[in-house]
Amino acid sequence: MNFLPVIPPEAVQIGTSCFAVVFGDERVEYYANLEPLDFHLIGERNAMLMRIGRFSAINGIKTGHLMEVFSVSRSTVERSRKVFLEGGEAAFFKPRRGRGLSALTPERAQRATQMLAEGLSGRAVADALGVSAASVYNWINKGLVGSRRNRNDDDATPEPASDRSARDQRDRQAAMGRATCDTIGRVLASVGQAGPVAPEFTPARGVPCGGVLTALPALLREGLLSASELLSPLPRGYYGLATIFLCIAFMFMARIRTPESLRYHAPGEWGAILGHDRAPEAKTLRSKIKVIANDEARVRAWQSALASHWQAGDPDSWATLCVDGHVKVYAGRKGRLPKRFVARQKLCLPASTSYWVNALGGQPLLCLHKPLDPKLVRALEHDVVPALERLGVLDRVQPGTPAVTLVFDREGWSPALFGRLARRGVAVLTWHKNFKGEDWPEADFQKVEVPIHGPATTRSSTVRLAEKTVTLAGDVTVRQIRRLLDTGRQVPFITTDFVRPMPELAGAMFSRWAQENVFKYMRQEFGLDALPTHDLDELDPETVVVNPRRRLYEQAKRTLAAKLARVRTTLTERLARQKPAPELKQEIKDLEDALDVVRTVAKTESTHCRASDLSEIERLDVLPSRERLFLDVIRMLAYRAETRMTLPITHAQGKKPNPRKLLQAMMTADADVLPDPAKRVLEVRLLGLGTDAQDRHIAPLLDELNDTETVYPGTDLRVIYTTSATAGSPKPAST
Q1: Most CB contacts within 10 A, which of 74, 115, 416, 497?
Q2: pTM given for the model
Q3: For residue range 631-649, what is the model confidence (pLDDT) as tens digits?
Q4: What is the C-alpha separation between 293 and 624, in angstroms, rounded?
């Protein structure tokens, strides 16, 4: 018996012809009149183009049908037809002819640039390299050789300063994309023959956000680059680690909150700030951040090194520390994140919590990210205190004298915790939670001056205070201090610090709001709530979490109990009016029975369980903390640097100072960036601000910045700061 051949059902007919094609997982099969005709592997493009050319040239299949079946362009079909007609099937498999000796290699580019800088002509360079003179002149015209980065700048005539319009035209005409003017440097870096490229400034006038360079001395003083070697190294490329750090810090200082926002600023102008042809593209910057923060242990070590640097610079600021949690909301749609109550939005939202340790006045010192929120009581004992121990803060414990006093809100209330911390040399200062004691006589209160600490300055305030020693649950003895308000209300707070005077402790308690103000300011100005990625990590299977089934039973118990209370109230009201209500009695009995059942079943479920015991629906994800922690630490550096710069402006402004607003205007102002390699000076000339008064107010700050004699990282140029009204010769460097 003979069987007719059967074409596969997934075959696609080529137009109205008798040919069909099947695109399989491993090969492409061709059929003609229900018979197998030919095949080739799925990745052999030349073989597919040969068959397209044959179908078009010999079989006369229409171009549109071939385009539709093979998903190729019209030019591809027509080119395949032409190649088949001129060279046959063998023409599709001929080896491609190379570019020969005229191709530009990194070695030739470097030699050509060096010889051109020495004064040789293009023809002489061509003879030395063994290429045609036309090739050399073509390279020069395209900017591939002869880059300014390989010239001897000491002997060259200084470049004239470019204006904004000229730079815009130059950036638009760049060969490799917007503002990629350093072609040779980028080509060499792309093939691993160069990089990172050192910063090299060219004179530029009217650079937008050029005023952000005024933040450089403060950022370096705060340690922006001091411990960067602890982080994961970047692979060899065009941008170095210092450039990435400065770019991110300058972004925050200029109120550009995310790398994506940098796309809406001219990259060439930011290149003038960084000493490169352009700023890193957002995708590049994200990838660099991911590499730097890849190892979370390294990021934590870097943060600890910075904290040690700050501690050495101001050890007294570590005597009293404020601790509070910050909730960062997750707005993505991936996975399942634990929900937290967000006070500023009055909602329970998917979020992640980090615990911040700040000095009095709000200066940030440490940021501890937690995958799951352990609550403040546990975080104080198991995260904050161990972190302080690693920094050596608790090494100065003396009998009867606490090494550090932690200030926090009512969420951390736990008398048992207070006793355990006191035995480790850690005093606490917090509000007395749920206090219902009797008022003290007003005669016990006395007027005292208490210091109120701000980010940069300290002021005093007169309040009425009184104190007594009280004993909390668990036989924990504390000092209770009360403040008498003008309304007659007495507000109590307690402390286990029996050494420091009452006014000092009261000032620390009242200064706790500075930390909340820092969170608010950093959210608005530095994008503290912005997430670097919406990807989620799986929760460690051994992590102990709240049992969601037990939580459901507890919720059901509360619902039934509330409903039972309402029905009992209704029944009482009806009986008071002498109205029988048998249906309510039956409903009460049913609710009581249901409540007993729920209580019995709830006891069979443990309060906590391991993450591995959760079902697929109950599975929890967590936000990765690597990149978040890295960027949050740079935000801390930016805030500390800005705070350092406020003091001279505050003194200059006098009454009702508003230094941060003026600093923001200064850092986003236009500036002339004028390097002088002969004098080893980089002048940053700020253009006029809003008023003459603002120019006068920033003058003391510029004088202090010039006294630091800061050298721009990666160069030998000392940065000096002037304004358009006071521009002149730079101050001589100190010997």
Answers
A1: 497
A2: 0.75
A3: 999 999 999 999 999 989 9
A4: 11
